[in-house]
Structure formats: structure tokens, C-alpha cells
Amino acid sequence: MSAAAPPRILLISPNWIGDAVMAQPLLQLLRAARPDTPIDVLAPPPVAPVWRQMAEVDEVLQTPFRHGALQLRERWRYARLLRARGYDAAYVLPNTLKYALIPWLAGIPRRVGYKGESRHGLINVMHRDDTPPRPMVAFYAALAGAPGPLGAAPPRPALAVAPAQIAGACAGAGLDAERPLLVFAPGAEFGAAKRWPAAHFAALARLALLAEPRRQVALLGSPKDEAVCAEVAAAAGGLAAVHNLAGRTSLAEAIALIAKAEAVVANDSGLLHIASALNRPVAALYGPTDPDHAPPFSDRSAAISLRLDCAPCRQRECPLGHQNCMRGIEPALVWRRLGELLTAPPG
Fold it and tell me: Collapsing DSSP states into helix, strand and coil, what is residue 138?
């Protein structure tokens, strides 16, 4: 008779790329506590490529559910498949009821998560957030221990990219792997209020290319960011060194290009947190969101915020109609901070 398979850990991913990155230290803590236990991640397809760049993940399972739908029958069927994989613990990172249902239906005995929406019984190791809320890295990392304050500062998020993946992404994007690459992320999924103006990104590109003519500038983003990236490229005067790659790379390819970059300039977005986890120099632009809540954490980073009295409002559109928190961040200021990052020694 063959021996029973060892128990596994299931982690249910958040729906946002940046949150997935900031949850990675939880994996580091779980791996340290149970070094021989396989860890699987159940993630939405748009977020799955991020988890595949994490050394602690054994397998990424993609959720088959439609966004926003309960789909109770489908969740029951999928839970039966999970039951057969032999999980003894599940960490439920989304705060919704429908994701807490999955490990309960799968009969996973230890189900860890935050209180969320009506989840008593579904979550049986219940955490509650602090007031005011913790930074996101600490928020997720706290799930590794008993409910209560996190005992020590969590590790930093870390992603890894193989050289072959970088070379393939450069070739696919038409970039010269031998020339320096600066990455801009002008989009922001949350809303227009978080976006630094396209004209400012274009002015920054001109300053960067004037300082180093061999430099390439890659504009990265999802298909939703194609228009704003095209606006940046047009405002930059159609320079051949400015490449609009929004919607033209997969997320895995975008991660690889960020890994190659000499530095990244980004709004508060998923690509910002990917750059931090790859330990690239990062100039992060904050307006309506709080730079202290989800800051960059690479060795060389700058969180740039005017910290106006009206910020952080955390609104998708500027409630005052002026967006001064982002428009007032001058390209010359960002270039100065970026120059400091590029010339500072690592560490």
C-alpha cells in the first residue's frame, strides 16, 4: 500500500496584481514554518503570472469563476477537485464570502483569513485588522501567525526572473537587450485620479533621453492603458526610443522587462509593486492614495507625493476637479529624484 501524499497549503489570491505582490512575504513566512509542505495558489487568470514568479509557489491553479458572480454550483464542483489534493490549511486573502466558501466546501480543516463579509464559520482562524489599517505587506503577512499584532517586521516581497525570460521579452518587444532600458507605467487600474499626466511622462522621457541618448523608454500597461500610453508617446514627439508596449506584452513579459530595467517610474499600480519586488530602482508617484500604506520597498526607491491637504482622498476621480495632487508633481522634480536613484550605490 502506497504512503499517503503529504498535506498541502492552499492560498487564495487577491484579485489585484499589486495585492498579490504584497502578499508574497506571507509565502516566505509559511515556507519558513513548514519547509517541506507544498504551497499552491488559487488565482484569477490575470493575476496568475505574478505568482509563477515566486519561488515558494509549487503550483498555480487558475480560478474558473466569473468576476462578481457567486456561482455556488461551480464552486461546489471545484471544491471537490480541491478536496482530492489533500490540503490541511487554506489562507483566504480576499475578504469576500464567495472565496471563503471554497475551502469550507473542500473540507479543508484550517481556514485562515480576515473577518470580511459574514464569514463566521467559513473562516475558523479569524483575524481582525488594526485601526488604522496596517500597510498591505504587514496586513497579509500577519496571517502566518496567530490572530493579533505581527510580532516582527515582515520580509520584503521578492520575485525572480530567469535571464532567458528577460532575453525573450526584449526580443518579442523589439528592444535592444544591450541598451539601457527605462520603464514607465502611466496607467492605473483604480482610476484616472491616480495617473500622472501624460504630458509629464513625455517630458520626463525627453529629459532621460537627453541625458543618455542610448537609452530606451518602454511604456508598459494592460490593453486598458493603450490610449494613455499612446498619448505619452505622441507628446514625446514620436521619438523612436519611446516604445508604446501597453497591451502588446503579456504580464509575464512585462515582468521580465521590468526585471531588465535600470529604473521604473510608475503611478500607484500593480506594475509599481512588481518593480519593487524585483528590487529595481523605483520612482513611485502618489496623489489620491497614501504612500505610507503601500510604499515601494526596493533598495533604491522614492515615494513622491505633494501630500496636499486634500490627499489622500482615495477617489477614482478628483472630487475637486483639479487633480493638483498629481498635476503639481513637476517632471523636473521626478527627473531629479530618478537621477539620484540611478547614481546611488545599491543596498
Answer: helix
**pLDDT, tens digit, for every residue of 140-164?**
999 999 998 777 889 999 999 999 9
CA angle centred on 272, ends 257 and 61, rounded to 5°: 75
Question: Whole-angstrom Cα distance, residue 285 to residue 324?
Answer: 13
Which residue in 265, 170, 186 sits closest to 226, CA to CA? 186
pLDDT digits (tens, 9 = 90+) for 39-96: 999 999 999 999 999 999 999 999 877 665 667 778 888 899 999 999 999 999 999 8
Fold agreement (8-144, 163-343): yes
Can you list the alpha helix ranges (DSSP code H) found in the chain?
Answer: 17-22, 24-33, 48-51, 72-83, 97-105, 136-141, 163-173, 198-211, 226-235, 251-260, 270-277, 324-327, 331-343
Give the contacts of 207 (CB within 8 A, at least 6 positions apart).
331, 332, 335
Domain map of the chain by residue range?
Answer: 8-144, 163-343
Instruction: For domain 8-144, give the CATH number.
Output: 3.40.50.2000
Pairing of strands 242-244, 301-305: unpaired
Region 163-343: CATH code: 3.40.50.2000
Entry pTM: 0.90
Of 265, 261, 219, 263, which is closest to residue 239 (Cα–Cα)?
A: 219
Q: Is 305 helix (H, G, I), strand (E, B) or coil?
A: strand
The amino acid that residue 80 corresponds to is R
